[in-house]
Amino acid sequence: MRRIRKLIAPLALLGSAGAMAGRWLRRIRREAEARAAALRRRDRILEAVGTGAERLLRHPNSHRLNDFLALVGEAADVCRVYIFENHWIGPGELAATQRYEWAAPGIPPQIQDPQLRGASYTASGMTRWKSVLSAGGAILGNVDTFPESEQPLLKSQGIRSLVVLPIFLGKEWWGFIGFDETRYERDWSKAEIDALKISAGLVAAVIARTRADERIRELDRERAERQAARAEERRSRFLAEASRVFAATLEPGEILERLARLVVPELADWSIVDVVEADFLRRAAVAHGDPAAAPLAAVVRRSAPPRDETNPIVRTVQDGSARILQRVNADVLADLAAVARAGQGRETVDADLGAIGPRSAMIIPLRVRGRVVGALTLLARPSQSYRRGDLPLAEELAERASLALENARLYAEARRAARVRDEMLAIVSHDLRNPLHTIALSAGLLEAITPQDADTAHQQLEIVKRSVQRADRLIDDLLDVARLEAGTLSVECGPVASVEVAREALELHRGQAEEEGERLIAALPERLPEVWADRDRLLQVFSNLLGNAIKFTPRGGRIELGAEAADRNVRFWVRDTGPGIPPDELPHVFDPFWQAKRQRGGAGLGLAIARGIVEAHGGRIHVESDPGAGTTVWFTIPTVQSHRAEAAHASRRRLDAA
Predict the structure, then answer these.
(1) Which of 133, 315, 418, 583 gets the highest tally of CB atoms within 10 A of its CB?
(2) Secondary structure (DSSP) of 259-313
(3) pTM surpassing 0.70?
(4) 469 Cβ neighbours under 8 A, 6+ residues apart
């Protein structure tokens, strides 16, 4: 039996070794299979990286990175692939935000997780990641083996194993790319890691290219903005200069000549202005930038504008639409048939105009009060072609020229109206005054020879004399208004005693007030500063204001004339207890010939003249009224002292300027 055991013992030992060998072989086979699987994954990863590289480098766009992550994620057989970008959130505080992500079917994406947006490495417990990745290292392995400070964030996303690789743009650590496994723990082979590093490098290349492209686009935008700003500055300067040039004249012909010269050479090589006269076009101005072309410009100026309704210049005048033509010849610029009829020789003029050569052209309508009155034709340089973007500036210039023409028209009408007014005033002041004086003299003679007891005759003669006086005052008022409008109202100023002139005005109107059953009251202090005024004109202001107050104050009412010192002026007022002026009528009381609804006769000139006289003295006038409670008109006149101080100050300014 013992011998049998001795024989069996080696066999038992041999069986144990065989089992160990079997296990060893199986382990080797598994490792080989794992290496083979890892190599296959590596190959798939490399193939995916190659495919993605071809797509990304052909169309470098960061928006395509999600497609690339899908390719690599499927090839690496992982659950999630993502890219984080670094950024600073405070002094020395670096954070990362997830920018791109791919998640396998059934795996919840994490890109909207607030924890992953602006997460600080330090606050998230990922300080090790910051130091390792910034040094070019990798974070990889099973999460259970990671430091405890890192596990809560990773396990909250269901991650069991991962690989995280840095992304560098040059020497700058830009961020990282990560590969998550949420199904099981996983060993990552060196072959897989090397392949994944290639994908990280490709991502870095795409991001760098995208960043460079964005920088180029940004520079292009900045350059375009600078060019647009310079163009707008040139445009503004050009239009401002155009406004200045147009404002310097009110002659329509000169405005058109200036328009033609303005656009050369800023907008055109040639400019032609045609205007409508008697349903036809007349050539009003021609300009060219080259002095040597003056003879040719004279030919263009003498040539008859086109009349054919198919001609683009004529069509622009007819429909009011701006046009751009890329090829303009001589037959567009002139009516060659009319040239031949005039005996100028069509062939000669055609040849002369042909020297201009085919050009690109813009034709812009000129409008006055909404009606097309002409056209501005711009011819480009031979090497230049007009585009739609050139129209706005040309149209703006044409609009300003049209406004200048409208101003010139209004000025001409105003001059005609002024001539009519002056002629009328000449008639009023001479042809009407002479008969009035004759009537006044005749009434005086009749009164002298009429018996004293002929009361009726004397009353009628008194009526005639008063009517003559009213007509004479009306003529004076009309002349004063005309002088005010023409700016020729003269005031001869000197020191005037304020209280005395006010009392004089009051006494001059006391009789008129008593006839109307009204009381005149003086609210005047003992003394006031002298005013710098024309005494007669000042009395005229008092007369107009007191006359209005007497006219509108009912019998038994009261009229007050007062004065007081007010800063560097003396303030006068006339206050009545009349019916007042409605608020809607107050803004019009100083308008010439305006009459209130309550007006009782008169031409409506008194307050307008009063304002003109007060303002000619450097004062102010104002009306205050409360319907049913009366009206107050007050005005100011500078004192002698303030006038002299202002004159001395003006003299010093002139000396300083000299």
Answers:
(1) 133
(2) HHHHTTTTT-SEEEEEEEETTEEEEEEEEES-GGGHHHHHHHHHSPPP--TTSHH
(3) no
(4) none
Q: Are residues 63 and 194 in the same domain?
A: yes
Nearest to 267 by CA among 353, 400, 358, 363: 363
Q: Is 97 left (phi over 0), alpha (psi -120 to 50) or beta?
A: beta
**Residue 447 lies in domain:** 413-484
CA distance 205 to 70: 18
Shared domain check, 315 and 443: no
Please give the Cα distance from 558 to 79 (Å, whole number). Answer: 103
Is-contact 589 602, C-beta < 8 A? no
Please say whether the beta carbons of 544 and 578 come within 8 A.
no
Tokens found for residue 604: 């409506």
Q: What is the pLDDT of residues 379-428, one digit of tens each?
A: 998 888 999 999 999 999 999 999 999 999 888 888 888 787 777 767 76
Q: What is the CATH number of the domain that holds 326?
A: 3.30.450.40
Asked if the structure places residue 591 within a domain, the reply is yes
- Measured N-to-C along each axis, helices 455-486 and 391-426 cross at an angle, to the nearest 10 degrees, of 150
Higher pLDDT, 466 or 202: 202
Classify burial at 342, counting beta carbons within 10 Å of its beta carbon; exposed 0-12, middle 13-18, buried 19 or more: middle
Tokens of 454: 């002929």
Q: How many domains does the chain have?
A: 4
- In the beta sheet, which residues pair with residue 506? none
Is residue 261 located within the same domain as residue 205?
no
* Sign, Cα dihedral of 194, 196, 199, 205: negative
Which CATH number covers residue 513? 3.30.565.10
What pLDDT is attached to residue 341?
47
Q: Which of these three, 450, 484, 518, is where a domain ends?
A: 484
Q: Are residues 477 and 540 in the same domain?
A: no
The predicted structure's pLDDT at residue 303:
82
Clarify whether residues 315 and 254 are in a common domain: yes
CB 116 within 8 A of CB 98: yes
Provide the 3-class DSSP secondary structure of residue 149. Answer: coil
Nearest one of 555, 589, 560, 554 to 574, comparing CA atoms? 560
